[in-house]
Amino acid sequence: MAKIHILDEHIANQIAAGEVVERPASVVKELVENAIDAGSTKIEVTVEEGGLQSIRVTDNGSGIDPNDCTAAFYRHATSKIEHSRDLFHITTLGFRGEALPSIAAVAKVELVTSSGDEGLGHRVVIEGGKLIADETIAAPRGTDLIIRELFYNTPARLKYMKTIQTELGHISDFMYRMALSHPQIAFSLRHNSNSLLQTVGNGDLLQVIAAVYGTQAAKAMLPIQAENLDFQLHGYISRPEWTRSNRNGISTMVNGRYIRNFGVNQAIQRAYHTLLPINRFPLAVFDLRMHPSLVDVNVHPAKLEVRFSKEQELYPFVEQSIYQVLRQEVLIPQPVKQSIGGKGSSSFIQEQFHFSKNKNGNPLPEGSLPLLPSDTQANESAEMNVGSGTSSKTASVVDASAPPREYNQDSNVPSSIHGTSRSIHRLNLNLITRCGRREQRDMLCPRKRIEIFVQGSL
């Protein structure tokens, strides 16, 4: 008796779904890639409960012809390739024809699509691989796919799903990569009526970086653009001072497809050699363009791993391109002498602080007030008429470079002298408090001569 038999198509689809549909993020990935291949300019993704309850992807692409709606759910049914030689010239994101039948085998799928502008569309409902409805309805141009109760008929898979936050994190991470890969498409992601991502779709990659990583990260990015006979590279890399704790900030695209390649990541890190702290990684978003025959994407159903036919030339090209951009930047700040005054002025701000000392060279005791020295003793005696008791409106010119004088309070110096000096000191402190930062530096500069106008009786 024969022991080998052909599996039922439904069982085969469930087995294939284990490779294609690992988690809700895999469903979002396959549907969004189909929407991009359809020429969409606006893609909306709505998920509920981390994608386990429902996933909805709506686009304004070319749609599906009514005659192809049911055929799209057959295994290995695709419109991307026709011949074996097309595998060496893949220009689309999807080509295997396994996504829709694998999803329909483990979920409840509702498809509404229209390929024309006359408002006539088609609706197909499939539950667990069985066709439930196939009818004509009114629908706008584009495709609307709703996936409900993922893994409802495979409880073993559903049992090992992670938490809602974890599954949502995988979905949002993939949507961020898609938005960075295609800045010309307007993406939106909503979870339980909360907006998580919204891009404009005007083709500005820097705006997408700001929407994903924040405006501060976008300000720290440097544009990069290079090319040779085989490759083209364009995108943005971060300055060395803007780093992350892991490699998740590195987004590498090949012909618009997000990939993970260890060799490219190592080339990026070598370009930043000695510029990054230990265990810190840069933020990089760039797209590598090359002929489709130079890259093989038919490695894994997830299509995240690729093989390059000229990787020995690609890795040095990426490293040198990034290194050339970094070496053009001033990475270590230099001291700058900031001038003040007019064009012909020789005054400048000196970044120094000089603390007052007594005549022995020791700092003043705590609690004592340093006295501002005058330019000459004659000026002080002539301009500060202390003993007259009359109101004086004269100006005292103070040279901050002269050593301070100290008054002995036990001597016969009149107390009005001490009060006058302390009044001048308090006035000086008030001026420093009221002045801006530049004026404050001028007051503290030892070469700056300051005029303090004292009004009223001292």
TrEMBL record:
Region (Disordered): 356-375, 380-419
Xref: SUPFAM superfamilies: ATPase domain of HSP90 chaperone/DNA topoisomerase II/histidine kinase (SSF55874), Ribosomal protein S5 domain 2-like (SSF54211)
CDD domains per UniProt: HATPase_MutL-MLH-PMS-like, MutL_Trans
All copies of domain DNA mismatch repair protein S5, residue ranges: 209-327
Superkingdom per UniProt: Bacteria
Biological processes per GO annotation: mismatch repair
Compositional bias annotation for Low complexity: 360-374
GO molecular function, one term: ATP-dependent DNA damage sensor activity
A cellular component term, taken from the record's GO annotations: mismatch repair complex
Biased composition (Polar residues): 380-395, 409-419
UniProt keyword list: DNA damage, DNA repair
Signal peptide: none
InterPro entries registered for this protein in UniProt: DNA_mismatch_repair_CS, DNA_mismatch_S5_2-like, HATPase_C_sf, MutL/Mlh/PMS, MutL/Mlh/Pms-like, Ribosomal_Su5_D2-typ_SF, Ribsml_uS5_D2-typ_fold_subgr
Family to which the UniProt record says this protein belongs: Belongs to the DNA mismatch repair MutL/HexB family.
Name this protein carries in UniProt: DNA mismatch repair protein MutL
Native source organism of the sequence: Paenibacillus pini JCM 16418
